[in-house]
Design goal:
14 helices; 498 residues; alpha+beta; elongated; two-stranded antiparallel ribbon; three-stranded mixed β-sheet; disordered N terminus
């Protein structure tokens, strides 16, 4: 240590070991008038003199002339310090009048001296203040010594800074913040970045850096825009795209069917006959009996297209051309036997050519094969309304009025199947009370009910002027006046009642 770091005191250091002085102090303590040491059987200790050793301060030559004065002050201070320590110890009941004076003198000397007492600690202990102490926002415990994290004015133990999604600590340099919650960047992307439900990859951003995707208006199926133009198949019934981890069934005429729609698909004419008769009963229950026996055939797409070309009056009224009400004599190839499944497609389709002769205004009703029961029934209800209008003498109706009222009957039949008690026909309709009781209501699964709701959604939200606009005008008239009065008004005026 350099000399500049040595403190020079004006009085000698009392921690310097001086055997002769200690012997003299021991004689003083033994000869005290109160005999303090004998009461406890011990001698007072001199401030841990066995352990505390300090370097003696350097004295100048001028200090040596004051040796006798300093020796007297040392004797007085040592005696006063010893007495003050004795007074603080329990068990010392004997005191002298000089004890209190010596203690006061000691306190005055120690507090008023210009140098720090050797027994004081170098650093005062830090006072604990819980209000200013760091509290972990995760476990709400004190953060003591060690590592901690600070974020947005809050603090965490490293193991308490957890991802809200997966529950594991966030150890990366970057993280995502949403409200008051913290996330791994990967977890936040899993939660917020949409995934394609076809390829199951994150939907990429476009050239402007925005996430662009397509979403089905009913099923909410999100998918990359590229799948609309690639080889991805679309179900011809529910319109959902085929996911890569599923399989659609090919019907052999460029149509595909998802497995949910395949569960209730009607594949041949024989399977469709019970449904056809139940819909005829539905019409009869609304006092709209169809007296003639109109043949019904399930056909392939090619056969349906050929029948459309040979139809002069053009009574093919479904937007996707899935059904046709024939009025001309034709030879139509129908599905005779239900095909079987062969891997991912149907095979073994047996067809039969059938010549249709005209015995009334309607020759036959044709419907595409392979569609779910509810969709097949909705097409049949639509085409039967065309037949009923032709047989009852409704002539020269506009496309909007005729297609609108046919879509209305299709919607009403679906509604009776999916939600049997939802519609209450006005009392002016003579058939409203019996229409629901006569419709066929088997036990349907939740999947089939959802399909029925989708087919109703398609009719209600059709954007074409004839099918969509016509249906909404027909629905408003039927809800206001009832079906019977609406039909009577159409018969007389060719338009919907206002």
């Amino acid at each position: 240590m350099s000399s500049s770091n040595i403190n020079h005191f004006s009085q000698p250091c009392i921690y310097e070991r001086k055997p002769k002085v200690m012997k003299w102090l021991t004689k003083i303590f033994k000869g005290g008038s109160c005999n303090r040491g004998s009461q406890r059987g011990r001698q007072p200790q001199f401030l841990e003199d066995e352990n505390m050793v300090s370097r003696a301060p350097v004295r100048s030559l001028d200090d040596r002339s004051r040796a006798s004065t300093e020796k007297e002050e040392l004797d007085q201070n040592a005696t006063a310090l010893s007495l003050a320590e004795d007074l603080k110890r329990p068990g010392y009941k004997c005191r002298t009048d000089n004890d209190e004076d010596l203690g006061s003198s000691l306190n005055h000397d120690l507090t008023s001296s210009s140098y720090p007492p050797p027994y004081a600690p170098l650093y005062a202990p830090w006072e604990y203040n819980p209000r200013s102490y760091r509290i972990c926002s995760g476990c709400h415990g004190d953060i003591g010594s060690g590592n901690y994290l600070g974020c947005m004015g809050t603090f965490f133990h490293p193991d308490c800074f957890l991802c809200r999604a997966c529950g594991y600590p966030i150890t990366e340099y970057e993280f995502s913040l949403s409200g008051n919650n913290y996330y791994h960047k990967s977890c936040f992307r899993e939660m917020t970045h949409p995934k394609c439900e076809v390829c199951h990859q994150f939907i990429p951003t476009n050239a402007t850096g925005l996430i662009e995707y397509r979403c089905h208006p009913f099923w909410s199926q999100k998918y990359c825009p590229s799948h609309e133009n690639d080889v991805t198949k679309r179900c011809c019934s529910c319109e959902r795209l085929e996911p890569w981890n599923a399989r659609y069934i090919s019907l052999g005429d460029s149509r595909s069917l998802c497995l949910e729609c395949m569960e209730s698909a009607i594949m041949d004419t024989g399977d469709c006959q019970p449904l056809y008769h139940s819909i005829r009963d539905y019409y009869e229950g609304m006092n709209m009996k169809i007296d003639q026996q109109v043949p019904m055939l399930l056909v392939e797409r090619q056969a349906l297209n050929e029948a459309i070309e040979g139809e002069k009056h053009g009574f093919h009224h479904m937007p996707e051309t899935r059904g046709l009400c024939l009025s001309e004599e034709q030879t139509v190839t129908s599905i005779l036997k239900r095909p079987r499944m062969g891997g991912r497609e149907v095979v073994g389709i047996r067809t039969h050519p059938q010549k249709l002769t005209r015995k009334c205004e309607v020759t036959a009703i044709l419907v595409l094969f392979g569609l779910p029961r509810l969709l097949t029934g909705a097409i049949l209800a639509h085409e039967l309304m065309h037949a009923w209008l032709r047989l009852k003498g409704f002539r020269n109706l506009s496309l909007e009025v005729e297609e609108g009222i046919c879509q209305m009957l299709s919607y009403m039949w679906l509604e009776s199947e999916v939600m049997p008690v939802s519609r209450e026909m006005p009392s002016t309709s003579t058939a409203s009370s019996s229409s629901l009781s006569l419709s066929k209501k088997g036990v349907k699964s939740g999947v089939e009910n959802k399909l029925g709701e989708f087919f109703m959604h398609q009719i209600a939200h059709d954007t074409s002027p004839a099918y969509g606009g016509g249906f909404r005008a027909a629905n408003e008239a039927v809800n206001k006046y009832g079906l019977r009065r609406t039909l009577d008004h159409i018969y007389l005026t060719g338009s919907f009642p206002l």
